[in-house]
Amino acid sequence: MNLWSYIRGRGELLTFLTYQHASLAFQTVLVGTVVAVLIAVAVYRLPLLSALSLTSSRVALTIPSLALLALLLVPFGLGVVPSFIMLAFFAALPVIGNAIVGLRSVPASVVESARGIGFSRLRILLTVELPIAWPVILTGIRVSTQMIVGVAAIVASCSARGSAR
User: Fold this and answer.
1) Based on the number of CB atoms within 10 Å of its own CB, is 132 exposed (0-12), middle (13-18) or buried (19 or more)?
2) What pTM value is reported for the model?
3) CA dihedral angle for residue 140, residue 143, residue 145, residue 151, rounded to 10 degrees
4) Integer Cα distance of 45 and 50 in angstroms
5) Torsion of CA 19, 28, 152, 142, to 10 degrees
6) Per-residue DSSP letters for the chain?
7) Cβ count within 10 A of residue 88
């Protein structure tokens, strides 16, 4: 049996499993990104907390994914829930670091100019700081997506059997 006959015989199943994998990766990266940007926005102006967040996110990236998954299996059992939590956790880590670095790299003169023309703190964040930091944040999202697509394949083969089986 060659590869092409294998694919022809299982095309529908392979399409469904590909969709499941892409959906899981997209959802976890989305949730991880939202959480990471919120954390970064909360801590980037506080030197101690931002340093702690940067260090913690870098150290947490060294946790083996299967070890974390094994720890999550105890309270949640086998299935999608522990896999989703683990993948969202790992998806947030590169984005946290990049978001903090990006927000801290916004020139003080630009923020001061926005403050000088009467922008509120929230408006400065939304219309000045986040747009300037966005390219750096996108780099974190790209790294996160690449990492999650690979780890999701391992997770799927270990515990997160979807509705296909």
Assistant:
1) middle
2) 0.85
3) -130
4) 7
5) 100
6) --HHHHHHHTHHHHHHHHHHHHHHHHHHHHHHHHHHHHHHHHHTT-HHHHHHHHHHHHHHTTS-HHHHHHHHHHHH-SSHHHHHHHHHHHHHHHHHHHHHHHHHTS-HHHHHHHHHTT--HHHHIIIIIHHHHHHHHHHHHHHHHHHHHHHHHHHHHHT---TT-
7) 20
- Specify the amino acid at residue 74: V
What's the one-letter identity of residue 9? G
Contact, 58 vs 97, CB < 8 A? yes
| Per-residue pLDDT of the chain in tens (165 residues, 90 and over written 9) | 688 888 887 888 888 888 988 999 999 999 999 999 999 999 999 999 999 999 999 999 998 888 888 888 889 887 788 889 999 999 999 999 999 999 999 999 999 999 999 999 999 999 999 999 999 999 999 999 999 998 888 887 665 454 444
Q: Take residue 36 and report the two structure tokens written for it.
A: 């990471």
Q: What is the CA radius of gyration of the chain?
A: 20
Q: Which two tokens stand for residue 128?
A: 């000045």
